[in-house]
Amino acid sequence: MQLLLTSSSLPALQLPSAALAKARVRVAASAAASAPDGAGAAASGTSAGRFPVFLPQAVERIRDGAAVRLAKRIERVPVQTGFLESPILSSCVRPLKQQQDSDPVVLLHGFDSSCLEWRYTYPLLEEAGLEAWAVDILGWGFSDLETRPPCDVASKREHLYQFWKSYIKRPMVLVGPSLGAAVAIDFSINYPEAVSKMIFIGASVYSEGPKDMTRMPKFVSYAGVFILKSLPLRFLATRLAFNKVPTEFFDWVQIGRLHCLLPWWEDATVDFMIRGGYNVINQIKQVKHKCLILWGEDDGIISSKLGYRLHQELPDAILRQIRQCGHIPHVEKPREAVKHVLEFLARNKSKGSNRAPSVPSVPVNS
């Protein structure tokens, strides 16, 4: 099995014109704390200053300040799909207020991950004036999957579309890291009207999916998924994902593994893998949207050479690399990732100016 078991992957924004020139990302350690912890409490199962009740109890052991603050903003919203009679209570972090004069930014995540992947980048985007949504892909994250819905590619696609149709309702900038890039490509080809632009980060789009698992007995698949959840493998995968071992290493392992502790995680992951996973190789050249490709130069999971290949195959794309950075720039170097995102949006918002907000040097991960 290809080793892509990081907190972001396995087997992959328009600003108001006036705000764009003035926006400054002023995030310090306490910036994200301005979010009211009780927002949406009745619908999401949260209470002021506390974690949502649906999160695994292990969340109490997390010490990463940015992760704690974002976790307290996670809520569940009902999403009605065509493959279930009852709506799926779907986990996400939604903006404090919606805007009508700019495109919303919708942040996906990679294989076997969650919206907590955006713990450092989300507040930076919010402080820059963007309407940002962090959405858990069906089958991963913290949604209520007690009914065990199908978690194949078609179901993930429809679930995301129905989420967009119910809550976002306008063309969005779709951001996909690692396997999330394959999710974004598949979605944009099927629902082009829902997408305005796309941003890919360390894109896992050249894998043909876990074909071997489609022929395996289910008990073998469950055994493999059990290993996927194990701490030793998570430690190894986290180490491979970053250019340097972070001081928050153990905490990052716990954050990336948190959603695996939900009772339906194994069923949902096996269901996805035995159905073949994503294969978007033949869809890449069909993408018509403007795209930004971000890649860590020292990506140890997916070779940065594939970034050049993707750049050549996408009809309208720019490529930016981040030095001394591994597979997950939005975790390892969030300020640089946001800088490139803002520049991309500035370029496409106003052809007369390529200037973008500066990103501060203050820490965002405390």
How would you explain this protein's 3D organization?
The chain is an alpha/beta fold. The chain has one domain (17-349): Rossmann fold (3-Layer(aba) Sandwich), CATH 3.40.50. Helix content is 35%, strand content 12%. It is built from 14 helices and eight strands. An eight-stranded mixed beta sheet has the order 1-2-4-3-5-6-7-8, sandwiched between helices. Strand 1 and strand 2 (88-93) form a beta hairpin. The longest helix has 16 residues, at 153-168. It is globular. The two termini are 35 Å apart. Mean pLDDT is 83; it is low at 1-44 and 352-356.
As a whole number of angstroms, the C-alpha radius of gyration is 19 Å
- Main sheet? 8 strands, mixed
Q: Mean pLDDT, as a whole number?
A: 83
Helix coverage percent of residues?
Answer: 25-40%
The outline comes out as globular
> Could you state the order of secondary-structure elements as H and E?
HHHEEEHEHEHEHHHHHEHEHH
What assembly state would you assign to the polypeptide chains in this entry? single chain
Poorly predicted runs of 5 or more residues? 1-44, 352-356
Instruction: Tell me the CATH superfamily.
Output: Alpha/Beta hydrolase fold, catalytic domain
Structural class category: alpha/beta
Total helical segments: 14
Order of strands, main sheet, comes to 1-2-4-3-5-6-7-8
From the N-terminal CA to the C-terminal CA, the straight-line distance is 35 Å
Q: What amount of the residues lies in strands? A: 5-15%
What's the level 1 CATH class?
A: Alpha Beta
Reported by name, the CATH topology is: Rossmann fold
Number of strands: 8
Counted up, domains total 1
* CATH level-two architecture: 3-Layer(aba) Sandwich
